[in-house]
Amino acid sequence: MIEVNTNFIQRITIDWNKIAEDSYTRKIDSLKGLTQLDFDHAVTFFVGENGSGKSTLLEAIAIKYGFNPEGGSRNYQFSTYDTYSELLDGICLARGAIHADWGYFLRAESFYNVATKEMEYADLKHPSEKYHEKSHGESFLALAQKQFKPNGLYLLDEPESALSPQRQLTLLAEIRDCVKAGSQFIIISHSPILLGYPRAKILVFDDGKVHNCTYEETESYQITEMFINNRNQILRNLFE
Ligand SMILES: Nc1ncnc2c1ncn2[C@@H]1O[C@H](COP(=O)(O)OP(=O)(O)OP(=O)(O)O)[C@@H](O)[C@H]1O
């Protein structure tokens, strides 16, 4: 059976001729040969070593789609740091026929600023969730539970960073409910729990290219499994 792609973002293309010769993005091994990526699953993960270019690409996709560079919904427009994505000049999004009803760009690194803005944007009709009065993990999950809605586009950069393993499982269930209601997710993650989402596409930004892999082939899975099964030996080798 051929499944119809109902994603809001179905493909990205990058025209490197439009990107400055001295752009740092040209030095990122995984990205410099990248001209096209297809988003044909409801959930796509970006995985790979630190500094391999995942956030650079996700940020460019987010800004091109109309999100604020530091995160939030498309209604958030603020800047605490002059961020400019150098990929933006060359990136093109192929959108689906149906537009997303809602969306959210969640970045672990600038969540504090978004939580501050959320208080400023609050009014009588939209009271603040007061994320600053919750713990980091509580506020992250509360935000997901409030912002994940049907037919939405969600771009998440390391959502696991504040979450306990138990709450990561809860997040998996939230993602599942939202996907069943027509939403699309693109998620950067190092979490062997989140990466276990069934039937997700996993794109690895290692070995000088962006390529597919299975859950069991991810480093997050392999290193976690190896560590749990051989903890004493690994620690001995590490410390000696
Ligand atoms: N504004 C910038 N100017 C120059 N270099 C940058 C800039 N932003 C990122 N880089 C570099 O680009 C490379 C990719 O960074 P990026 O943040 O995309 O990596 P990542 O895969 O998301 O890493 P992590 O898993 O640590 O979050 C890194 O080497 C980084 O130092």
From TrEMBL:
CDD domains attached to this UniProt entry: ABC_ATPase
Record InterPro entries: AAA+_ATPase, ABC_transporter-like_ATP-bd, ATPase_AAA_core, P-loop_NTPase, Rad50/SbcC_AAA, Siderophore_ABC-ATPase
Keyword list, A-Z: ATP-binding, Cell membrane, Ion transport, Iron, Iron transport, Membrane, Nucleotide-binding, Transport
Annotated GO biological process: double-strand break repair; iron ion transport
SMART domains: AAA
Database matches in Gene3D superfamilies: P-loop containing nucleotide triphosphate hydrolases
Main location group: membrane
Gene Ontology cellular-component terms listed: plasma membrane
Superkingdom of the source species: Bacteria
SUPFAM superfamilies for the chain: P-loop containing nucleoside triphosphate hydrolases
Domain ABC transporter residues, every copy: 14-232
Location within or outside the cell: Cell membrane
Pfam families assigned: AAA_21, AAA_23
Membrane topology: Peripheral membrane protein
Gene Ontology molecular function: ATP binding; ATP hydrolysis activity
Official protein name in the record: ABC transporter domain-containing protein
